[in-house]
Amino acid sequence: MPRKTFTSALLAAAALALLGAPARGEAAPVEIELAARGAAITGAPLQLRIALAGPREGESLPVSLFADGRPVATMELAAGEHDVEVEAGLAAGRRRIEARAGSARAELRLSVLPGWLSVVPPLVAILLALVFKDVLVALALGVFSGALFLHGWNPFVAFARAIDQFLVPALADESHAAILIFSTLLGGMVGVIGRSGGTHGIVDALTPFATSARRGQVATWLMGVLIFFDDYANTLIVGNTMRPITDRLRISREKLAYIVDSTAAPIASVVPISTWIGYEIGLIGDAFSGLELGFNPFTAFVGSIL
């Protein structure tokens, strides 16, 4: 290529680059993206994620939200991602949500569910547990019913989303995994105690006292108070130990479950030596730190009981 032609091409490219580049101090074009966070339910705040690009550092832009063309909120947002909650007052059905920032627009199509559907999954789980006497199957089908509502009543998509969006993240959570492992080990320990005759020993020791339905209920309550170090341990040990006695005294399983539940977490949450106390003191300590108070969390906890 001749030198003159090459120079002309280079100058033309530089001119195009200068014409296309924003002037010094001029803001970049504004871009906005809109996404939903969780399900949209009537009567509940609409949870959205707004990603805004374009404003310079330290500056913000007014962002307006519209539902089916109706303005519902306006807020000042800087560049970046923002999780917002908006009281949109949406009715059930397909709805169009729009975000506007200057000349930039983003649109989102939502399927808003009626509020009463939120109680269906737990009711399904409870009813199926009563019918089939299998808690795990009932819980799994309760989760599946919730996924069915969220994913357009498609059973195949709901089955897949129930696994990868609900079951797997719940099992992968550190605190949930710790509870599952603890409960499994504790259940195994209770099984070993039962096989070795320990449970029968407790039953034999309580049998002379538990001679009537009233006394059997008092014995169950006393066992629930004495096993205070953990609510899960209380439920597993007391329930399995007292079941033969309450069955013999014709005390219903429902009454046994009520007494066990009434003396499990309520006792473990107020006794100063239990697995609950570490969690509660942690919450109290975080609150004191946020308020810049120099109080001792354990002393404050004991003082709240007394």
Layout of helices and strands, plus pairs?
Blueprint: H1 3-20, E1 31-36, E2 46-53, E3 60-67, E4 70-78, E5 80-86, E6 93-101, E7 104-112, H2 120-132, H3 135-150, H4 155-172, H5 174-196, H6 198-206, H7 213-226, H8 231-248, H9 253-262, H10 265-268, H11 275-290, H12 297-305
Antiparallel strand pairs: 1-2, 2-5, 3-4, 3-6, 6-7
Unreliable spans: none
Which range best describes the helical content: under 10%, 10-25%, 25-40%, 40-55%, 55-70% or over 70%?
Answer: 40-55%
Spatial ordering of strands, largest sheet:
4-3-6-7
Q: How many beta-strand elements?
A: 7
Overall SS class:
alpha+beta
Largest β sheet strand count, sense and barrel closure: 4 strands, antiparallel
What general form does the structure show?
Answer: elongated
Distance between the terminal alpha carbons, to the nearest Å?
94 Å
> How many distinct helices?
12
Q: How much is the average pLDDT?
A: 83
- Percent in strands: 15-25%
SSE run = HEEEEEEEHHHHHHHHHHH
| Structural Rg | 31 Å
